[in-house]
Amino acid sequence: MSLILEVKDLVKSYNGKEVLHGISFQVEKGEVFALLGINGAGKSTTLECLEGLKRYESGSIQFFNKNGSQSKLHNRIGIQLQSSALPGNITVYEAYRLFCLANKVKADKELLERFGLKNLLYKQYSSLSTGQKRRLHLVLALVHNPEIVFLDEPTAGLDVEGQVALHEEISKLKESGKTILLASHDMAEVEKLCNRIAIMKEGKIGYIGSPEELIPAFSDTAEIALKTEDSYELGNLNFSKYLKRDNGYDYYKSSVLSDALLELLQFYKENNQKVLDIKINHATLEEKFMEFSKEELA
């Protein structure tokens, strides 16, 4: 796949204090890529540098394999507005026409209808619900059919129904082949929507990979539960640590799953203990993310 965006060794400082410490990542055409982190991790600052809203001290940002200012590429990039970006008395259709005019595209109403805004054309921005505002922000980012769209916490502040509705729209964009760069603190959101995730903390990127790749990247620790007729505590073996006996299962923890399973099954067999059932529980990505957020990065 071809690269849409490449960031190399990006450094950003505020008042002499470095807040982005040489981060690097790539976004491929057609993927949904997330910057994931708790508040203060550097997600929004990274997006603002990419959008040309903030200057950075060093490093490089390259769109479409071209060096140059973001202003020269504005017709190929869509940027989600923040809530304070529109005046309260502007109507939905006025905002839409303004953005279409600025991007030199026809102001037809198909996009507004697609996002459920056609019946709100003459409603003022200040009277829209949070979910309606977020849908309008997404529409305004898409009026010129950009090749890559930046979304900064797109569902923050929405109720569950609003989150589900906006996730459906983002999923449709993904299915259509649109490239999306998403900043979020919501693990469930990025796990559901994204092809790859860069986990940020304190201005650094700790891990990059697909949701499936990130769990073993964080830690390959798994919990093994063996159901036996009788309790038989093995203690700590070479590849596993005994945890507890609960509801007929002996629980073990291991970071080398295949070796631990072979060792445990062999040991039970040698001691005439019949294994009735085996359960293996991997930590969820959200659990690993919370662990990572508490750790210190080098």
UniProtKB/TrEMBL annotation:
PROSITE patterns: ABC_TRANSPORTER_2 (PS50893). Keywords: ATP-binding, Nucleotide-binding, Transport. Signal peptide: none annotated. Residues 5-227 form the ABC transporter domain. It comes from the Bacteria. SUPFAM superfamilies: P-loop containing nucleoside triphosphate hydrolases. GO terms for molecular function: ATP binding; ATP hydrolysis activity. The keyword Transcription does not apply. Coiled coil: none annotated. Pfam families: ABC_tran. The keyword Ribonucleoprotein does not apply. Belongs to the ABC transporter superfamily. This is ATP-binding cassette domain-containing protein.
